[in-house]
Write a structure and sequence with these properties.
alpha/beta; 2,3-Dihydroxybiphenyl 1,2-Dioxygenase, domain 1; eight-stranded mixed β-sheet; binds fe (ii) ion
Length: about 300
C-alpha cells in the first residue's frame, strides 16, 4: 500500500435553514442515502458508493454555511502526527465524539476561520458497496446519483498560512495555484492527499469561515447532463454550468441548495501523483481556470458565499 497519512476528505457538516426540506433535497434530488437523525437538529446522509457510516451531516440553523470538514487518516499514528505537527502553528484543538459510527475526531480551528477534523476510526455503513461478487451497486442509485462527497472550497483570510498547515501538518500536496496579480500570493490553492486533483481548495476571502461550495462526485459527463435535467425539472437554481474547469479539468455544475449553500456536481478530472509538477495559473487567466469554455466568471460566483 503506497497511500498513507491523510487518505481523503470524508465528512462535512453543513448548516441549513429547514432540516426536513433539506433532507428531502439531498436525498431526492442529489441522490444521497439517508442514514438517520442525529439528535433533534441534525440528519446524516451518505453517497451510495461510500463505505463509511456517513459523510454529510445537515444541521438546522439560523444561517447557512459550514460547521466543519473532516479528513480520514489511515491510522491513529497519523492522527497523533497531525496533533504534534499542529503545535508549531498553535491552532486550537478540541475533540468531537458525537458523530455516530465515528471514533474521536480531532478538530483544529485554522487561521481562515474554518474547523478541520481528522479521524482514523469509522464504522462501515449499513448501506454500502457490495464486496462479495460485487454488483456495480447494491441499492439502485436515484436522483443525480451522487457517488460520494468529493471536496470543498473553503474561503477565508490568511490563506498562505493555512496552505502551509495543510502541507506541513496534514502532509497534503498543492496540485494547482491561482496567483494574485503581483504573483506574491494566492487567490486560490488546490490541495490533494491522494490521486484526486483536489480534496480541498482554499480561497482568499476577507470574511472568515465562509463556504464557497462543496462537491459530490458523479460518474461522468452523461451524469452531469442528467443532473442538469433534474435541476431544470425541479427548478433548482443553477449558478453556472454544465461546463468544465481548466483547473483539475473537472466537469461541473454549480447550483444552490434550498438554504443558499452552493453545491457542485463534479466528474472527471486528471489523476494526480506526488511527482507531478505544480500547475500554475496567472490572475489574468482566472476565468479560463474556473470556467474553461466561457472564460468569464460571473459576479454571483465571486460574491455569493455562505
Ligand atoms: Fe469544486
Amino acid at each position: 500500500m503506497a497511500l498513507k497519512g491523510i487518505l481523503r476528505s470524508g465528512l462535512i457538516q453543513l448548516r441549513v435553514l429547514d432540516l426536513e426540506e433539506s433532507v428531502d433535497f439531498y436525498h431526492d434530488r442529489i441522490g444521497l442515502t439517508k442514514v438517520g437523525k442525529l439528535g433533534n437538529d441534525r440528519f446524516m446522509l451518505k453517497g451510495y458508493d461510500e463505505f463509511d457510516h456517513h459523510s454529510v451531516v445537515l444541521r438546522e440553523a439560523d444561517s447557512p454555511g459550514i460547521d466543519f470538514m473532516c479528513f480520514k487518516a489511515l491510522d491513529e499514528e497519523t492522527v497523533k502526527d497531525v496533533i504534534a505537527k499542529n503545535e508549531k502553528f498553535g491552532y486550537e484543538r478540541y475533540e468531537v465524539t458525537d458523530q455516530p459510527g465515528f471514533g474521536t475526531i480531532q478538530m483544529f480551528k485554522i487561521a481562515n476561520g474554518h474547523t478541520i477534523g481528522v479521524y482514523s476510526e469509522v464504522e462501515l455503513a449499513e448501506q454500502k458497496p457490495m464486496t462479495c461478487n460485487p454488483k456495480i451497486w447494491d441499492k439502485e442509485p436515484h436522483g443525480m446519483e451522487a457517488n460520494l462527497f468529493d471536496h470543498a472550497l473553503l474561503a477565508g483570510p490568511n490563506q498562505g498560512e493555512c496552505v502551509n498547515w495543510f502541507v506541513e501538518v496534514m502532509g497534503m500536496a498543492i496540485t494547482e495555484v491561482l496567483y494574485t496579480e503581483d504573483k506574491n500570493g494566492y487567490i486560490c490553492t488546490w490541495l490533494s492527499s491522494n490521486t484526486r486533483g483536489h480534496d480541498v481548495a482554499l480561497l482568499n476571502f476577507p470574511d472568515a469561515g465562509k463556504l464557497h461550495h462543496f462537491s459530490f462526485q458523479l460518474s461522468g459527463w452523461n451524469d452531469i447532463g442528467r443532473a442538469a435535467d433534474i435541476m431544470a425539472r425541479y427548478n433548482i437554481k443553477i449558478d453556472a454550468g454544465p461546463m468544465r474547469h481548466g483547473v483539475t479539468r473537472g466537469q461541473t455544475i454549480y447550483f444552490f441548495d434550498p438554504s443558499g449553500n452552493r453545491v457542485e456536481t463534479y466528474a472527471g478530472g486528471y489523476e494526480y501523483f506526488p511527482d507531478a509538477p505544480l500547475r500554475e495559473w496567472s490572475a489574468d487567466r482566472a476565468g479560463e481556470g474556473i470556467f474553461y469554455y466561457t472564460k468569464e466568471l460571473n459576479e454571483r460566483f465571486l460574491t455569493v458565499l455562505t
